[in-house]
Amino acid sequence: MKIHIKNGQVIDPKNQLNKKSDLFIAAGKIVSIGQAPDSFTANQTIDATGLTICPGLVDLSARLREPGDEYKARLVSELQAAVAGGVTSLACPPDTDPVLDEPGLVEMLKHRTKQQGLAHVYPLGALTRQLAGNALSEMNELHAAGCVGFSQANVAIADTQVLWRAMEYAATFGFTLYLHAEEPFLAANGVAHDGEVATRLGLKGIPSAAEALALASILRIAQETGAKIHISRLSTAEGVDMIRSAKQRGLNISCDVSANHLHLTEHDIAYFNANCHLKPPLRTQRDKDALRAGLLDGTIDAICSDHTPVDDDAKQAPFAEAEIGATGLELLLPLTLKWATDAKVDLIHAIRLITSAPAQLLGVAGGSLSVHSDADLCLFDANEYWRVSPQSLKSQGRNTPFNGLELAGKVKYTLVHGQIVYQSAH
Amino acid sequence: MNNPQLDRDGNLKHLLSIEGLPKKILNQILDTAESFVGVAEREVKKVPLLRGKTVCNLFFENSTRTRTTFEIAAKRLSADVISLNVSTSSQSKGETILDTVDNLIAMHADMFVVRHAQSGAAHLIAKHVPPHIHVVNAGDGRHSHPTQGLLDVFTIRKYKPDLHNLRIAVVGDILHSRVARSEIHALTTLGVPEIRVIAPKTLLPTQVEKLGVHVFHDMAQGLKDVDVVMMLRLQNERMNGAMLPSSQEYFKTYGLTQEKLKLAKPDAIVMHPGPMNRGVEIDSTVADGEQSVILPQVTYGIAIRMAVMAILAGGSPAGASA
Predict the structure, then answer these.
(1) Could you give all domains of chain B from N- to C-terminal order, each with its CATH number?
(2) Rounded to whole angstroms, how far apart are CA atoms B318 and A310?
(3) Fewest CB atoms within 10 A around its CB: which of A19, B41, B208, B225?
(4) What is the largest CA-CA distance in chain B?
C-alpha cells in the first residue's frame, strides 16, 4: 500500500519541520517528505489541503478499562476513540481488575490490543502487587511482557520505606516510575480542592499540601536512590515550583499535566457537576495559571488526556459518590490547541507536548515523522470547530466536563503503520 | 449557569439551598410563613392548599425532627404524605437514588422532600425529575439545610425585627454543618451586617471567611455584644479524635454557659437547631433559660415548611409579588 498525502502543512517537532509539503508512505513507513521517491506510484492519494499533518499523538495516560471493567469501556471502543482523536500510541495505567501485576495479564492485553490494529498500547505495570503499596511486583518479568514503566495509578504508597525500596529496585534496572503525587492521609475521602468551592458546597477537600507533601517525599527519595521518576498529572502551583527547582538541581525527573487541568478550575464544579469529579481535583485559577506557565517554560514535559471513561450510571450519584474520571482521548488534541491559542504558543511547540515529548518519556517509537519511521500520523483541520457531545464521541464513556463546548481541531485521518485507521465522516 | 432552583420567570421551582436565592424569594417565604403561624392555633389546623397532592418524604439519612415537621407541615396543607426511610429499605438492596425516585414518580408523587448524607443529593434529584415535580432539600451532607436556615432567620426576625442592625454569632462545628452554611447565606442575603463564626480551627472549613463571616476562635471575644447566639450540634463521633480531644474540653472552651452568655447583649437570644447535646455545646441552664428560643424555632419550623411547600405548589397566599 502506497499513500501520497499532498498539500498538507507538515509539522514534526522532533525534526523541527514545519512546512507545506507532500508526504509519501510505502509498506507502512514514511519514505519521503517533499519529493516523491523514484518510481513511486500511489495506490491512494489524500488531499490534505488546509490540513495539518503531524505525528500520531502519544498519550501518557489513558484507561482502556480492560480487563475487568468492560461495562465502563472496552478495548475496541477506546482504541477507536484513540484513533478518532488522532492518538496512535498510549500508555495505560495498571488499575484494571485484576490489576496489571502479572506478566500473563500484560501479555494478554498487548496481544488483544495488537489484534485491533489501531493505536499502539504500552502498559504501565503495577509497581506494587495489587497496587497495595506493600510488596514489589515482578518488574523484570512485567517489563519482559511489555510494560514500559511502572505506576501506582491513583493509589499512593503510604509507607515511605516501601516507596524507597521500590525506587531503589526500579533504579537498579533503569525502569521509570510514573507516580501520582498525593499524600493519602491528608487526601483521605476528599473529593474536591480544599478551598472556597468545597467549603461552599460542603464537599470534603483535598488540600494542595497533599500534593506538595507527596512530592517532597518522592523527590527526596528519588535523589537518594537515583530512580527515574515521572510525576503524572500535576495539579498545583506549588507542585510546579517544586518540580522546577528539582530540575534545576539536576534531578532526573519529568512530569505531565492533564488537558482537563489546563482549562478547568474548582469553579467548574458549579452545582455539583459530577463530570468535574477528577483525580487530582480541579484546583484554583492560580494553580491553572501556574500549570500553563510550567508548560511554557518546560517545567512540565507533556500533556496527557487522563482518559478515564465512566459509565453514565456511575456518574448519576451525589458528587462524592460519583465515580472519578472523564473521557479524554478525543479531546487531547483540541484542548491542547485551545491552550496553544490562549497562550499564543506556536503549533509546533504545542504538538511536541503530545507527540515527541511523551514518546521520548515512554522510550517508545512514534511521535515523529522521520523518514523510515512507522507511518503513524494524524491529519487534522486546526480551524474546524466541532461540538463535544455524547453523540460526537466514540469512547464508551460519554462523561466530560467539556460537554456542549465547541472546540477547534478536527481530526480528519489517522494512520497507523501506514494504514488509514480513522477517517472522519465529513 | 442557570440557577437550578428558579424557573425562567425567576419563581421558586425547587428549594435546594439558600445560596443563589434572591432576597425577594427569601422574604416571600418568610412572609408566607407568617400567615401560617396562626393555622396551628386554630381548632381546625388545616388549609386546603395542597389537597390532592402527594408529598413524599424521602429520607436517605435518618432524622426524626425534620421528617416529623415536614410531615406535619404537609398534612396541615391537606396533602397526602408518604414518609420513606430509604436508608433502611431499598438502598441497602443496592437500588440507586434515582431508581428510588423514579419508582416514586411512577406512583405519582408531586413533591419530594429529600435528606441525604451526601452533599449535592438534592441537586441530583432536582436535575432528574420532570418539570412538574418539586424538590425540597431537607439536608444534604455538609452542604445545605435551607428550611432550617429559613426558620432560623424567621425566628430571629420575630425577636429582632431590624435585621440590618444585628450582630450574630454562629458557634461550633461549622466544618460539618449544613445548618451553618444555610444560616450564613440567609443572613448575608437579608442584609445582616455582622456575622461571626466561633470555633477551633479544626471545625472551620478552608476559607470560611469567603462566605462573608468574621472568624473568632475565642468565645469571650466572639460573643461580645452579639444580639443572637446560634449554637450548633457537635456530632458524637467528632468528640474524641483528631478534631477535638474531648467533649469536656470542648464544653470548657466553646460550650455556652450563663457566664459566657453574659458577654453578649443583655437581650440576646440563644438558638440551637437541635438535637442538643446538653453539657457539650450548651449548658442546660442556658438551653432552658429565659433567653432561649429553641422551642419556638421548632414551632416556626412547621410554618416555614408549610410556606415552602405552598409556594412550590403554586398556592402561596402571600403571592409571589409580596
Answers:
(1) 23-144+300-312 (3.40.50.1370), 147-298 (3.40.50.1370)
(2) 47
(3) B41
(4) 56
* Interfacial residues of B (vs A; Cβ cutoff 8 Å): 1, 4, 19, 96-98, 116, 118-121, 123-124, 128, 140-144, 178, 181, 205-208, 210-211
Q: What is residue B322's predicted lDDT score, i.e. its pLDDT?
A: 34
- How far apart are the C-alpha atoms of A192 and B239, rounded to whole Å? 25
Measured over all CA atoms, what is the biggest interatomic distance in chain A, rounded to whole angstroms?
69
Q: Do B119 and A196 touch (CB under 8 A)?
A: no
Amino acid at B238: R
Distance CA B139, CA B187 (A): 18
And the C-alpha cell for B149?
436556615
Q: What are the structural domain ranges in chain A?
A: 56-362
- B197 three-state secondary structure: strand
Q: Give the nearest partner residue to A321 out of B118, B144, B205, using CB atoms.
A: B118
B96/A313 Cβ within 8 A: yes
Is the Cβ–Cβ distance between A23 and A8 less than 8 Å? yes
pLDDT confidence bin for A169, thresholds 50/70/90:
very high
Topology of domain A56-362, CATH: TIM Barrel (3.20.20)
Chain A closest-CA separation from residue B17 CA (Å): 10
**Mean of pLDDT values over A250-257:** 97
- Phi/psi of residue A75, each to 5°? -50, -45
Cβ neighbours, 10 Å, residue A285:
10
> Closest by alpha carbon to B129, among B108, B101, B100?
B101
Q: What is the dihedral of CA A69, A63, A135, A159, to 10 degrees?
A: -110
| DSSP structural state of residue A374 | B
**ipTM, 2 dp:** 0.93
